[in-house]
Structure formats: C-alpha cells, structure tokens
Amino acid sequence: MSRIKQINIAWLDDQIDILARDNEEFFKSNNCFIKYKAKTAEQLQSFLDKHRGMVDAVIVDFEVDSTNPNAETSTSGFQKIAYIRDKYTPIPFFLCSGFTLQDIEERSTGLGKQEIDYFLKPDENGRRRYCHKSEISKLVEMICSEAESISTPQFKVRQEYDKAFKAVERFGLDAETFVFLLTIDEKTDYLDLREKPVKLRKEIEKLFDKLGEEEVIPSKKLNEVITWFKNASSNPKIESDDMMPKALVSTLDYFAELINNSAHSLYFDEYLKDTRDVYIVKALTIICLDIIKWFNNGYYDLYKDVRPFHFDPFTASIIDKVEREGKQALLVKHEGEEYVLQKNYNAHANIGDKVKVKGRAKDTYYRKDYYVSYDKWERCDTT
Length: 383
What we know:
- The chain is an alpha/beta fold.
- It has three domains: about 5-150, Rossmann fold (3-Layer(aba) Sandwich); about 160-305; about 315-380, CATH 2.40.50.
- About 45% of the residues lie in helices and about 15% in strands.
- The protein is built from 15 helices and eleven strands.
- The longest helix is centred in the last third of the chain and has 26 residues, at about 280-305.
- The chain is elongated and about 95 Å long.
C-alpha cells in the first residue's frame, strides 16, 4: 500500500457529509482522498463527466435517489449506477451500506441482476465489492488493492508525476487537462487535440495570476514574468539562489513562444492537424508541470508571506537629477531603494520638492533602481 502515492475517490451517499467528517482522516492516512461528495446519482455522473481522469474509485450507497438528495428509501440512484459504471470502465465501484448483505439481497429483488451482481457476486478470491459502514478499514483496503491492480493510464500518470499534480491542485489549476494530455496516443483525434495546447498556456497564465495577486512575482502577464526571470539575478527581497534556473526559464520561454495568441499558434495548430504529433503535445504538458512544480517546491512557500513585489505608495523628497536612457529624470530614495521618476511635465518638480510615488514600472525589478513612469507619481501640494 505504501507504493501508492494518492488514490482519488468519489463517494455517493445521502449522508456523505457525516461519513466524510467521520472518516476523512482515516482515508488520508491510507493515501486515499475523498475528492468528490455526491448525494444523488445525477451529481455523481456530472462530476465524472468533467473529472474522469482524476477518479480512481467510486463508493456508492444502496439507498440513494437519482436526482433528489432528500428522498427516503429510494434506490433509483443505485439503479442508475450500472449505466454509470459501464460508461466509466475500468474505474472500480464499491458498495458501502448500512444494510447487511442479507438485507441488500432481500431488497434487491426488483433490481436487475447486472446491477447487484457486480457488488455481491464473489470474485475468484471470494471477495465482494461490498462492505458494511462499520467496516471502513476493510473498504479502504479493497479500494487500495483494486486501484493498484487495475492501474488505469490516468492512475499511472498521476502516480508518476505525483509531486507535480499535488502542485496543480494546490494552485487550483485544471488537473484533468494535464491527465488527458499525458495519456493521449497516436490514435487521438485531432479535434480532441486542437485546443488543448492553448489550454495549457491558460493554465500557466492562471498560475501567474495567482502568484501576481499574492505579489510573489512582479506581474501577472506571462511574457513580463519571463522577461523578469531572464534578466533578474535577484530582487532586493529575493535570494539569487531562489531564482528560476536559466534552463527552466529558456524552456518556459520556448513554450510561451510556441503557444501564443498570434500567428505562431496558428502554425502550430496546422502542424498538429497535419501530423497528429502527440509527442510534442506531451512534451509541452511536461514543461508546464515542471514549471508549476518548481514554483511549488520552494519559491512560493519562501515568498508568499514576504510578498517581495508588494508596493505601498510613499512620500519622499527629490534628492538629485539624473539621466535615464538618455532622458532627464528625478531621483528619490525610500527605505534604501532608489526610484527614478520620469519627468512629469504636468507637475514640475525640483531637488528638495516632495513627491508622492504611487507605483513603479513592472519591467525594471531586476535593475538597481525602480523606474517610475510620469503617471505613477505626483508633486505634493506645498501650499
């Protein structure tokens, strides 16, 4: 069981809130995670339709309704399970009920043989896919054994790239996209492929949106962040050793160039249409996972509380006139850092005047000073 890194479970039961509360920690201690809680068969199917690649086992109750979570003594949901099972083969399903085996056999007389045999008919080892709700440890043991035995392609991929998928979940990205693209093969239809590379780019942009909002990177824009990593040896609040390795920056730059919103993406789309080259798509997927994993493996935890790119507006006096890129500018100093102010012709200022600095340029974090465009500062009223 220790070889398994994570088993994802969907659980259907009208009392799922109580069951999850009482058993979630035990499941986690066995590397099993209750990823989705459903109270009706319809809810379960809706989840599996969207996240099939992220589920390794499904637990169902006997008395559940198809659509109404408050229905009493209904088995309409259980009757629908046979259809759902067939649709999502080979994901294993397990029956966990407060009824005894004898109770279920008596109550299932009106149900189809296929619906009940799957759970109650012993396999060659005499084992059923059924357990009583008082035997949760037995249920977990069955799930771990069968998930590893069946070992779907999706399961294998998530085991192999376990650290990366944990990072994907942590940052709230779409794990299903990554699972799909890592399990495609040469038979995959072009129509299933065509928009997925752009979806990968959007996932990286979502990552940078989050990191930008938490002020651990200087911008939310993909190309601006790449420029910063390319030029930055460090930031006043960031250790040089914590910066993204150049090889990884170059890889990210290649990815962004290939999958962008310009003509390049059209060329790439045409290439995919002509070649069905699943290997390059898989390579791009691994690049994305590598970038996400890098941020998760240290950088994010080191700087999410430091917020190195947080900016508070401040007031300071102009201390000098300087040249910046061949143009006259003004210099202020604040908390040991220099800010070069672009000349603001609507607000003349001289050495000694007080100014309010409201922002700084995104593209100069790697320089010894921060460049401030004319609309990001103003002269204080001296009257």
